[in-house]
Write a structure and sequence with these properties.
Strand content: 5-15%
Shape: globular
Helix content: 25-40%
Order of helices and strands: EEHHEEEHEHHHEHEE
Largest sheet: 5 strands, parallel
Number of helices: 7
Low-confidence stretches: none
Oligomer: single chain
Distance between the termini: 11 Å
Number of strands: 9
Structural class: alpha/beta
Mean pLDDT: 95
Length: 211
């Protein structure tokens, strides 16, 4: 994949198959292509981010070129580095319910999804809190909960600890450990400091200059 007006590809010669249920750590220097890789999985590339894509990206056997971002969001949930960019509501509960509500689920099913997601991210009891009163680690937990409530097959996290203090970082790593043990979801984590999550990894993908 080459971004619009870029001189060289951001990713090239990528051939990888990730089986369901793996915990994969993606690491490498800044600008190596890790975030681009995640954006290809949920359809932001090629649908929303301009550039030239060669080859195929298949999610559950379907080409991302032929599936909308909205449809892919049912399968691939992407958590960004800055949790503030993913907060959309004035209470924690409403924020977590936003995703499954947009999927058209019934109210009772939404309540179950929200409860499970809050439980996984240790936010039970925070339902009525304003998200912007939360700590950094709690905000990132909320961003994760909003994605988990949609029950994706793949949970992709783009440097989820990079903007957090040590307490927030420890919270997110602990949640990832619990998720890896309790849910049968494929988890991909971009991490500049792979030692934080290496013990959880079934596999490590090392990126360097787009390869």
């Amino acid at each position: 994949f080459t971004y619009w007006q870029a001189d060289k590809p951001a990713l090239q010669d990528i051939r990888v198959h990730i089986p369901a249920g793996q915990f994969v750590v993606l690491t490498g220097p800044t600008g190596a292509g890790k975030s681009t890789f995640l954006q290809m999985l949920n359809g932001l590339i090629p649908h929303h981010i301009p550039g030239r894509l060669r080859g195929e990206v298949l999610v559950k056997g379907r080409s991302t070129k032929s599936v909308s971002v909205a449809e892919l969001s049912r399968h691939v949930g992407l958590v960004f580095e800055d949790p503030d960019t993913q907060i959309v509501s004035l209470t924690v509960e409403d924020d977590v319910a936003f995703g499954p509500s947009n999927l058209g689920l019934k109210p009772e099913e939404i309540r179950v999804c929200v409860h499970e997601a809050l439980q996984h991210t240790r936010l039970l009891g925070f339902e009525d809190r304003n998200p912007f009163t939360l700590s950094g680690g709690e905000k990132q937990s909320l961003a994760m909960a909003g994605i988990l409530a949609m029950r994706p097959d793949i949970l992709a996290l783009d440097e989820p600890t990079s903007m957090l203090d040590p307490i927030g970082r420890a919270r997110i790593i602990s949640i990832l450990k619990s998720l890896a043990a309790k849910i049968n979801t494929t988890i991909l984590v971009v991490e500049q400091n792979p030692e934080l999550v290496i013990e959880l990894a079934d596999r490590v993908l090392l990126f360097d200059e787009g390869r």
